[in-house]
Amino acid sequence: MPIERKTDLRIQKTKNAIKETFKKMICEMDASEITIKELTNRAMIHRKTFYLHYTCIEALYEDMFSELSEKYYEAIDQVPPDAPFTEVNRVFFTFMADQEPYMEKIVCSASYREFADKFFMSMLRHNRSRHNPYAVFSPEEQNIINTFLALTSSNIYRQWVTDGKIIPLDSLIDLSGKLFLNGISSIL
User: For the chain, percent helix, then strand, then coil, each to nearest 5?
Assistant: First the structure.
């Protein structure tokens, strides 16, 4: 019988303290202002303790996005791989709308754009690994199509947040779906 390894409670508490402190800092600061020194001071841990868990701040971002990606994969994997685009669109916007405030800041603030765009592209890659309706196109054409979908979705979400989420989520999903499927002529 295999031995089940349990994560030491102290290790888990320390990682949670680092992540919760990091989330708060994201909400308060631009990416360039976040330092390991400030994070460890706020989390009340020693710098060496941080380095036991992460090699650098970027590794912490990667860990946070990895967790979020897994949650997105769980959500999208609930729909059939060949689900209509409108259903994939609904899952994306519903998932994004359910995120904590720090994630909103990462997605919407220009200083975090590099991290957010990597996250969106990983979501898209997962979707394509499940089903690729664009397989008949050349790899270069698929790159254009996928970039259009990922960046347009993320920018629509960013604009919705910037506008204070005035448009109800269901209306946002419907409008964006129409725009994606049929362009501007579908709403005129």
Answer: 75, 0, 25
Calculate the alpha carbon distances from 107 to 48, 92, 117, 162, 171 in Å.
30, 13, 8, 11, 21
Tokens of 30: 């631009």
**Single-letter residue type at 102:** Y
Residue 158 CA to its chain's centroid (Å): 12
Alpha-carbon torsion angle 100, 116, 119, 77, nearest 10: 40
Q: Report in angstroms the alpha-carbon separations of 168 from 20, 48, 97, 150, 165.
A: 29, 46, 11, 21, 7
pTM of the model: 0.85
Q: How far apart are CA 161 and CA 145, in angstroms?
A: 24
pLDDT in tens, 95-109: 999 999 999 998 899
Residue (of 132, 84, 101, 126) closest to 25 by Cα position: 101
